[in-house]
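tokens incoming
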């Protein structure tokens, strides 16, 4: 247990320092969601008008953009595994007196902390896009963000444990991230699309993360009527989606630990 906690602390602290010291990465991680808000939210809000419950497009998209930021940060966090392998750092920590589970958990915690910092920065834009924000909402939001980041970090590390190079990992991530974003309901309600797209969206685990974040912002009352995710005639509640994300996180992190121990 001591070796696990030691590995968790060392790896998470190193990854966090690396992120903070990389100003370009810090700015780029914020610029990407802002670009989506400006182009899609600002450009199409007048065309589309208001949605169910009188919710504007910017108000609808804003929670989805937060979930999108968590997705990209967490999945691409796995690239540090490939980088560490190529630079030889991974070999050094593997022979250190720390467990491999601790190394994986450290990567997960590091990605979750980075995602939290980015979300807190993005929350500063909430008043600008007309999204009400208070302390209670933030307190309810942060655990959802952490759970979603843990689940997606597990997936990123799982893929990275098999990736032969940074280029291969990043190419695979690009092929994976964009379909997951566009099918997750960030830009449109998943219950109002063609059947084939609706099926793919509801098989996409990120959809439930996006909807969970959206429910924190909009609630389950009239403002969110018709905007939720319905599965077999049942509209998913926030508790159900959080439980689903948590269960997925446990499975993916456990799989990452097992695969990392075998492949790294």
């Amino acid at each position: 247990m001591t070796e696990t906690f030691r590995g968790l602390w060392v790896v998470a602290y190193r990854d966090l320092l690396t992120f903070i010291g990389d100003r370009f990465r810090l700015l780029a991680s914020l610029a990407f969601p802002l670009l989506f808000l400006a182009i899609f939210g600002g450009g199409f809000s007048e065309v589309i008008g208001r949605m169910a419950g009188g919710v504007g497009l910017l108000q609808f998209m804003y929670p989805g953009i937060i979930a999108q930021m968590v997705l990209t940060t967490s999945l691409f966090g796995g690239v540090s595994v490939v980088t560490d392998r190529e630079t030889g750092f991974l070999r050094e920590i593997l022979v250190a007196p720390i467990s491999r589970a601790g190394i994986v958990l450290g990567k997960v915690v590091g990605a979750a902390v980075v995602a939290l910092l980015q979300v807190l920065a993005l929350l500063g834009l909430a008043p600008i896009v007309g999204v009400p924000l208070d302390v209670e909402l933030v307190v309810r939001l942060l655990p959802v963000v952490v759970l979603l980041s843990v689940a997606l970090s597990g997936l990123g590390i799982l893929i990275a444990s098999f990736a032969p190079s940074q280029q291969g990992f990043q190419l695979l991530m690009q092929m994976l991230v964009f379909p997951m974003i566009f099918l997750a309901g960030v830009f449109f309600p998943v219950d109002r699309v063609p059947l084939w797209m609706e099926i793919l969206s509801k098989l996409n685990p990120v959809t439930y993360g996006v909807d969970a974040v959206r429910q924190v912002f909009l609630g389950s009352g009239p403002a969110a009527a018709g905007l939720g995710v319905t599965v077999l005639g049942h509209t998913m509640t926030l508790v159900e989606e959080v439980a689903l994300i948590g269960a997925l996180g446990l499975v993916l992190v456990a799989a990452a630990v097992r695969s990392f121990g075998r492949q790294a």
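note: The beta strands are 230-231, 234-235.
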